[in-house]
């Protein structure tokens, strides 16, 4: 289990999760799984990671999660939790050390509403590169993304805080971060041109220890992304 | 405020929410708003309701919630919460009486995963009637809906419980119910033919006091739905 290499169809099923640990089924370059990795890192939770070959999934993984998606968590009792926001809220509840959500019900609701808004931004990170690849004019989509960024920028300006949930990092920042980390890779960095507060937020984020711990080098991202776009994702690139 | 009639553009903005109450901005026939109405009723929360004309929204409502969607909650401090699952979790946290979510983090995660699955069922309740209206062959869509129902049925069979979260009603039952209440209206009742446990669940649900309190008569639903399909929704039908 001390390998980062991905497990594929035909691999032997792992044993139970050791007591005192939680297991994350992940994929090294998946932004959704990165949300859970960030929360595990930020809260300092003892865990082990098993990376899954998403093109050729192990049978035993599909038994644990019939949807076959990462992130998926498993605890020593064999309980399985999936879907990135659900895994992160689960970790927040089970591991009370270093709370990432505000204590008040309204504070929690605000974070969920921000996440719901952000879920409408995520598709642009896929639609624009896909459109470009197909030789389409993506300027309208880029315009829409810039508008979404302007709203996020306005939110930071109105709040007068360094992060989306206040003056320190909270859950919502980690939920949004993985896509901003890929801005350069997706050739979308210019979309931040008119949103200085949002740009400063991205700079602040890169200083966070959990963000640093979960990040790949630009070169590694590029190589994986190339293999992904060619239809042959190299899940083990760089290992 | 003691009217159920809907508020439209040009109406006077309401005053603050009275102390000790919460206000729901709703629409009498909206299944998403019904989720929140069910939770308010089940938990016996003191509240007032203001129905919104969704075709011609009041300016003051758009100021409170720029998305202009129901359900939206407002508390006496002027804090605003929207998006149906977020409003329901908020109510669950603020009003601890009669808990609708299980106490354990895994129990809560299970309810969220079930809700996530169910969110993939909801579109069928719109796509099938729409397709029929346009004279399309909807048999494939009906087949897919029946498969989704079969999964829900299997879930009840495996759990050997009367409801989706155990032997009494919990949050997930209320989150799913509004669409089942409209099965006859949507001419989809035959899709329950091969799923006896799910059918029994719908029968059990109609015996619940909160479900009864939030229900309209078949005749009222039909009249509203007709006006809705004709593009002139009569939000005040029957008042």
From TrEMBL, chains A, B:
Keywords on record: Oxidoreductase, Transferase
Source organism superkingdom: Eukaryota
Boundaries of every GST N-terminal domain copy: 20-99
GO biological process, one term: glutathione metabolic process
Function: Exhibits glutathione-dependent thiol transferase activity. Has high dehydroascorbate reductase activity and may contribute to the recycling of ascorbic acid. Participates in the biotransformation of inorganic arsenic and reduces monomethylarsonic acid (MMA).
InterPro entries in UniProt: Glutathione-S-Trfase_C-like, Glutathione-S-Trfase_C_sf, Glutathione_S-Trfase, Glutathione_S-Trfase_N, GST_C, GST_omega, GST_Omega/HSP26, Omega/Tau-like
Domain GST C-terminal: 104-224
Catalytic activity: L-dehydroascorbate + 2 glutathione = glutathione disulfide + L-ascorbate; RX + glutathione = an S-substituted glutathione + a halide anion + H(+); methylarsonate + 2 glutathione + H(+) = methylarsonous acid + glutathione disulfide + H2O
PANTHER family attached to this UniProt entry: GLUTATHIONE S-TRANSFERASE OMEGA (PTHR43968:SF6), PTHR43968
SUPFAM superfamilies assigned to the protein according to its UniProt record, in alphabetical order: GST C-terminal domain-like, Thioredoxin-like
Gene Ontology MF term list: glutathione dehydrogenase (ascorbate) activity; glutathione transferase activity; methylarsonate reductase activity
EC number of the protein: 1.20.4.2, 1.8.5.1, 2.5.1.18
Gene3D superfamilies: 1.20.1050.10, Glutaredoxin
Family listed: Belongs to the GST superfamily. Omega family.
Organism encoding this protein: Pagothenia borchgrevinki (Bald rockcod)
Name of this protein: Glutathione S-transferase omega
